[in-house]
Amino acid sequence: MSEKKLMSGSHVIAEAAVRAGCRFYAGYPITPQNELTEYSAAAMVRTPGGTFIQAESEIAAINMVIGASMAGARAMTSSSSPGISLKQEGISFAAAMELPLLVVNTMRGGPGLGNIAPAQGDYFQATRGGGHGDYRTIVIGPASGQELADLTRKAFDYADHYLTPVMIIGDGMIGQMMEPVEFPDPIDIKKLPTKPWILDGAKGRPSRLIRSLILDIALEEAHNWKLVKKYETISREITSWEEYQTDDARLVVVAYGTAARIAKGAVRKARERGMKVGLIRPITLWPFPSRVLHEMTGRIKEFLVFEMSTGQMLEDVRLAIEGRANVHFYGRPGGVISTPEEIAGEIQGLYQSRQLDGE
Amino acid sequence: MAKKVFTKPKYLKDAVFHYCPGCGHSIIHRLLAEIFEELDIRDRVICVPPAGCAVLAYNYLDVDMGEAPHGRGPALATGIKRVLPDRIVFSYQGDGDIAAIGTAETIHAANRGENITVIFVNNGVYGMTGGQMAPTTITGQSSTTTPGGRNVQRDGSPLDLSQMLAITNGTKYIERTAVNSPKRIKDTKKAITKAFRVQMEGLGFSLIEILSPCPTNWKMTPVEALKWVENDMTKFFPIKVIKDEVGKI
Amino acid sequence: MIKKTVFSGFGGQGVLMMGYVLAVSAMKDGRHVTYLPTYGAEVRGGTANCTVVVSDEEIFSPVASTLDYAVLMNKPSLVKYEPLMSEGGLIIINSSLVSDSPSRKDVGFVRIPANDIARELGSDRTINMIMLGALVAKTGITTQDSIMNGLSEIVKAKKASLMELNRKGLQKGAEYALKF
């Protein structure tokens, strides 16, 4: 581990990526994540074997990354909401072709051009696949600089291990905020497992094909089910979340990323006021930590979902809880950053109206 | 013992072409397979096939292949080539792929001077989707979306992409050929060979545009289609070296 | 202990750097810190500000809905941040640039003629150090030594003369603030 450095989230991702063996970055300018692109430009220049390309479009960027992945490199691109929409075609192809790559979405207010303030309106797009067809991507929602450093490395490991695109979603606050970070030591890319599927010229072996066109419907169906099997394995193996003061909780707040930090502050305030409140913070958004929520319904009957959107993760919480408890929602879309006081107020209102303060 | 005068090239797979009778793709595939063998580069070649009829090129060409989304071939090839600069990377693209939906990727890969080769098969229609107007459909040519013929007022003029690319600094060798006669087929093979050599020498972006018959969508017999290439297409897309900053190689 | 400080002024006055120096210094003290700048279109316009949170425990929100301290370099910043000050908070104003005073009586207030002091020291580059020196002296949020320690990490070319100038700036700001 290195000593602590004060760095912005966008820089942390770019630095962590290079340390994770990423040697290819292609991207297109869009606020509020240009710092990630700029840092990558400098980092790739000083890294032997590194390539940085400022692409002519978001679409070109994701396809360059697809090419780099086919050629065996750890590769990534990043953008913000409207740019991620443009990349979705490529993400669908990468999922179909089972190519490992990393996409970072620094979400902004939307829909449309929206604004550049922190928001969480791309949850559906990220966790439901986002592009066309029947697929999922692994989606990770870090909430701190240190998590960005640790999870960026994990993202590349997951991508290589499961042969699938991985998306990290944050927002302008996660991206711009500076926090102390300790980076893991850089990996030696020569020690990464070999990839027996890459395209590097058919020297001494039969030629290889990486494709997504499968005209035979029986084969395409089989391919779809093969992907599903993989997604089931991923769900079993990597689902992660943070629990905060849930042991004796009568009300549990569910929030991720920036919203979870605010919610955690609110939970602490509520605790100070004597309310038994906890927090579940999903770290992987797909796969979603459904089981922990489901199992909690045995003792917790009130959940409050807080998102910087009009209610997207809310649906996953409802699916997890299956009507066994009440699910309430509080949302601030459009780039509004709530205060812990505001959420604490919501908690208090709910706590009282549901009469949770009795014995 | 009789002398063998004709055989299947070594790097063409044992598969029956799905292409229509008289289609130019099968000829171009054969030329590529011959060139892989003659330049002894099969072990170093990576092909990026397009969306379109030639998406199935992987059934025929015995080299590594990575399929690109429609129009994105040059961007994807860029990614491969930058990671593996000593491999020979080429995209194989149709007119709609390269000059309509993928215009941006094409121009910018060319302008960056990516050291890749593009095989641009121009048959003036969207073949796989059933014969709609392509950016290169010539004025007056009928297609399923230009009933009565391409009308410049309504549909714009045919786009000469190769000429456009020639003005960018990154392009080193651009030639337009055709596969409508034995002589032109031989010239096409020479041009593709040279384009690969340009890449092998690390000189920059090379592109061969090949005028290719599509009798099915043109609603012609194969023989009529060959003549139509010669007499009609070349009026808009003359056969010539469009740019050569390389010379003899 | 958790303290939220805003640094605010016009772009180009170095308010982001002041916040950054405080954040790095507090980090090197082993404290939890967050530094949140304004970003995007706003940065390229007129105002710039950043919020630094320094805490002994995990920091949840890096945004300050209420502020403990404000270091202000122009009048719009005073208008914007005075209402957000917590009771007993402290506003430090560069009085060489802003003649106004806060109207709230429940908030401490220090005027530092930082530009004038800097001129006496012979370098405008010390303005921000003077303001930081005042903040540190009045609040104890960190120490002058910590700030120097933070600076030594931030300033790549550690020219002794420049570091000495920074130290003098901090010292002058502190002296002035304590007399105020």
TrEMBL record, chain A:
Pfam families: PFOR_II, POR_N. The keyword Transport does not apply. Residues 15-197 form the Pyruvate flavodoxin/ferredoxin oxidoreductase pyrimidine binding domain. GO terms for molecular function: 3-methyl-2-oxobutanoate dehydrogenase (ferredoxin) activity. InterPro entries: 2-oxoacid_oxidoreductase, PFOR_II, Pyrv_Fd/Flavodoxin_OxRdtase_N, THDP-binding, Transketo_C/PFOR_II. Keywords: Oxidoreductase. Residues 249-343 form the Pyruvate:ferredoxin oxidoreductase core domain. Its EC number is 1.2.7.7. CDD domains: TPP_PYR_PFOR_IOR-alpha_like. This is Ketoisovalerate oxidoreductase subunit VorB. It comes from uncultured Desulfobacterium sp. The lineage of its organism: Bacteria, Pseudomonadati, Thermodesulfobacteriota, Desulfobacteria, Desulfobacterales.
Automatic annotation (TrEMBL), chain B:
Pfam families: TPP_enzyme_C (PF02775). GO terms for biological process: cellular respiration; small molecule metabolic process. Gene3D superfamilies: 3.40.50.970. The keyword Oxidoreductase applies. InterPro entries: 2-oxoacid:Fd_oxidoreductase, THDP-binding, TPP_enzyme_TPP-bd. One of its GO terms (molecular function) is oxidoreductase activity, acting on the aldehyde or oxo group of donors, iron-sulfur protein as acceptor. Residues 59-210 form the Thiamine pyrophosphate enzyme TPP-binding domain. Keywords: Oxidoreductase. This is Thiamine pyrophosphate protein domain protein TPP-binding protein.
TrEMBL record, chain C:
InterPro entries: 2-oxoglutarate_synth_KorC, Pyrv/ketoisovalerate_OxRed_cat, Pyrv_flavodox_OxRed_cen. Gene3D superfamilies: Pyruvate-ferredoxin oxidoreductase, PFOR, domain III (3.40.920.10). GO terms for molecular function: oxidoreductase activity, acting on the aldehyde or oxo group of donors. Residues 11-175 form the Pyruvate/ketoisovalerate oxidoreductase catalytic domain. Coiled coil: none annotated. The keyword Oxidoreductase applies. Keywords: Oxidoreductase, Pyruvate. This is 2-oxoacid:acceptor oxidoreductase, gamma subunit, pyruvate/2-ketoisovalerate family. It comes from uncultured Desulfobacterium sp. The lineage of its organism: Bacteria, Pseudomonadati, Thermodesulfobacteriota, Desulfobacteria, Desulfobacterales.
